[in-house]
Amino acid sequence: MKMILKNLISVLGSALVGVGVGLCVVTGLGADALGVLWEGLTQHLPLTVGQASLVVTGTCLVIVALIDKKELGLATLLNPLATSLLTDLIIKHVALEGPTFLKLLIVIVGISFIGIGSGIAAATNAGKESYIALSFALSKRLSKDLAKVRMSLDCICFLTGMILGGKFMIGPIVGVLLIGPLLKATSQYCGKKMQPLLG
Predict the structure, then answer these.
(1) 138 closest CA partner among 72, 64, 79
(2) Do residues 27 and 170 lie in contact, with contact meaning Cβ atoms separated by under 8 Å?
(3) Lower Cβ count inside 10 Å, N or C end of the chain?
(4) What is the C-alpha R_g of the chain?
(5) What digits encode the pLDDT tens for the residues 106-134?
């Protein structure tokens, strides 16, 4: 029962990530740094954006498997499905027109959802989505602050994507600044609150 509950909470966290990504996309200002990397890869490899995301996901999974397999689990497979379904749902049903400051505000809200949702999903320890798992595994292996590790990974993805030809947008910059700290704070807070419930 506890395992079902863990996976359910983890998937709900990932669904919140999907809502956040969708909101960022509909503003036209971009989402997180991974999107820039995926786009950059498509400029040099015969891949669609979706295929590029799978390549990055697979690469992260291999690295995590080599560093710390404990970060992987059933939710590693379930969470990307929840994220992609909610992202597509938001993009399909939400239209956004308005001034730039309103779009920027929505990007901040969307990026916050990504960080908070990632933290909720991670706190269950039911298995983490590959990129989040990589952040945690590297943080433990290098004995470095989780927020700084995530911010560093986001910077690497963003800069690599830009070098490869991805578009410069404000969303990924907001993501670099906010997702790491929110991921760390939410995972710690929710981990403590969920401990009595999930064991």
Answers:
(1) 64
(2) no
(3) N
(4) 16
(5) 999 999 999 999 999 999 989 999 999 99
Average pLDDT score over the chain: 92
Going by the DSSP 8-state scheme, the letter that residue 167 receives in this structure is: P
In the block, tokens 């954006």 appear at 49
- Is residue 26 within 8 A of residue 37, CB to CB? The reply is no
Structure tokens at 12: 């709900």
Q: Whole-angstrom Cα distance, residue 21 to residue 133?
A: 18
Contact 168, 103 (CB under 8 A): no
CA angle 60, 5, 136 (to 5 degrees): 25
Give yes or no for a contact between 93 and 19, defined as CB atoms under 8 angstroms apart: no
Helix axis angle, 170-198 to 130-142, nearest 10°: 80
